[in-house]
Amino acid sequence: MLKTLFVLLLSIICVSCEQKSTEEMPASAATAPGPEMTAPPQPAAPSQPPLVIKEGQLIEVGEIYTNALLSYTFTISNTSDADLQLDMVSGTCNCIIIENNLSDYVLPAGQEVTFGLKLNAAKIPVGDFVRDALVEVKDYLPVKIVLQGNVKPLLLVPPPPQVNFGLLKDCGEKWSRTVAIELQPEVPGGLDIPTELSHPLFTVKSQKLSDRKTEITVEPKGDLPYTQEFIQKISVPVLQPAGCPKVELIVSGQVGGKIFFMPQAYNFTPKTLAESSQHTVSFYLGEVKLPDGSIFDASASSNKKNRFARVRRSRIAAPAVPVNYNLKETLDWDSFFANLEVDVPRGVQLEKIKHESGVELKVTISSTVFARARKILQIRPRRGTQYFNNLLLTALKVQDDDDEQDTDNEEQAQD
Q1: What is the pTM of this model?
Q2: DSSP conformation letters of 300-350
Q3: Which domains are seen in the chain, by residue range?
């Protein structure tokens, strides 16, 4: 019994000693033996270069006009005991032109170097501005030179410079609009604009009201294209004062509406062609009264069918103007019907029928005409040189499996 107690007590003492020696052991010794691991040194973060811009790094330009071209000279001084390599001096905007950009230039310790900078106000939008130039130094952070100020327009033009002719119910309707352009009162000299300007759709003339004020008159040369949202741009060059940017006039409005005849195509099957030698179909624009007394609204159908065209916008930015999509109210139907022409293939008979707020094109064609026309006929409604959507008459050919195989072989032989 005593012997058993003695053995048990000895075991407890041994375990206690082993735990104590483990606690006193260094942490490095408690882990697996091996060489001590050290983290790789972190590269030093770039710092500000030891140089000084003598003219300062913030330039207050003040108020300038859009034709201003300002010149500045900056002196870079190396204040360190070591040479500095200048990688480049660059502008962060196309309005800044650097003269002597010091590309790969070594600036000795204690020495100075100069570079030129030009600020072109014509490249800066009107209003407050902040523009930067950067002096890039090898192994250092770039040094920023900030130019800030305000660009004022040379000319007084109604904001926005827009010519809006409103709603024209006929594309040949005549109108005339004027826009006055005036030189800012504190700008010396006079205003000079060409007397006539070239544009494919408009006659644009200028009349000098005084040395400092000119009036621009815009009139259509002929028919304007029918459209729900008409937008065109006229660039007006300014000869004096020198360096003045062009005036961009936006001409906008609504000319009738979208001219789209419905349906766009009729397809005839061999069975239909065999039942009769003459075939009559009608294409519609606007509201048309059908023989059964019902009203077919072709303009509503085309607007629904082509709703993507309604949301598509011109690339020319223009103020939003109300658009009326109801062709019944926006089109002069008498004038449109009188000036509507239709190009039809030989052998096709066409009858134009005027409705109160719509037009019907009734087409009569024989089965033999389809054969001569190779199964497709194209009808083209137009006004002068302005064409609307093409209308199609097609003869479908029903093929069995053997015919389709023969056709495939013929196409492969032609290829």
Answers
A1: 0.69
A2: HHHHHHTHHHHH---SS----------HHHHS-HHHHHHH-EEE--TT-EE
A3: 51-152 (2.60.40.10), 155-255 (2.60.40.10), 265-317+328-395 (2.60.40)
